[in-house]
Design goal:
By secondary structure, the chain is of the alpha/beta class. It contains 10 helices and 10 strands.
Length: 228
């Protein structure tokens, strides 16, 4: 198995073999919490218009953000905390984010696409080990608007790579580093934070979810939970 760590939108476009789209803060984590809540289907949309069309045609519940702020007319922010504290039942979800969604729709050269975060890192590695593809592209999405790598996504990619190679990384050290990194200020700095601190802590729930998430290509893309 050849493992490559790639970054940003260019990394998604370059990804080959099985691509793993990593967006820890927040959509990769939000997806896992949506499946934990028992929603029936999750569609990843390319733009707001596609989301509103799915709401009209299928009654989809809309979750998403643009530049970290809930999209006008959507039902919920891209927030693990909000997901866990909402009555979603078996709703169908249309999901849009500034980074993770863009990564998914731009992985055009990959044979298969997964999404991942720390909350299902081990399950994702186990899925990859079972499938044993020739190439794995771990894509750390970062913040696309600024074309800027972000520590949480880069470190999650390296963490999954280490699992695949039978190596160990100290997650306690990773967590402590991420508490102080640039991205965490949006959760934890009282003078800045547009996001709630609980979203940071939920994104750091290592291996809470024992499933991989696979992307089914289509119009729109649909996410599929793969139990291990």
């Amino acid at each position: 198995m050849e493992i490559a760590v790639k970054s940003l939108l260019e990394g998604a476009k370059e990804a080959e073999g099985t691509a793993v789209i990593i967006d820890v803060f927040r959509v990769g984590s939000t997806i896992n919490y949506l499946f934990e809540k028992g929603v029936s289907r999750i569609f990843v949309v390319r733009d707001d218009e596609e989301a509103f069309r799915l709401k009209e045609e299928k009654g989809c519940f809309l979750i998403g953000e643009k530049d970290g702020i809930k999209i006008r007319g959507f039902d919920l922010d891209n927030s693990p905390h909000d997901v866990l504290n909402s009555e979603l039942g078996e709703k169908e979800i249309a999901l849009k984010s500034s980074n993770g969604s863009e990564g998914i729709v731009n992985c055009k050269n990959a044979d298969e696409i997964l999404t991942a975060s720390f909350t299902n890192a081990k399950a994702t590695a186990e899925y990859l080990q079972e499938k044993n593809p020739g190439i794995v592209s771990l894509v750390a999405m970062g913040r696309l608007k600024l074309n800027e790598k972000r520590d949480e996504d880069e470190m999650c990619a390296e963490y999954i790579k280490a699992l695949l190679q039978g190596e160990e990384m100290d997650f306690g050290e990773i967590r402590e580093h991420l508490k102080k990194c640039k991205s965490s200020r949006r959760f934890l700095d009282p003078e800045i934070k547009p996001w709630i601190a609980e979203d940071f802590h939920l994104a750091m729930e290592l291996d809470r979810h024992n499933f991989a998430v696979r992307v089914k290509r289509g119009m729109p893309f649909e996410l599929e939970k793969v139990e291990l």
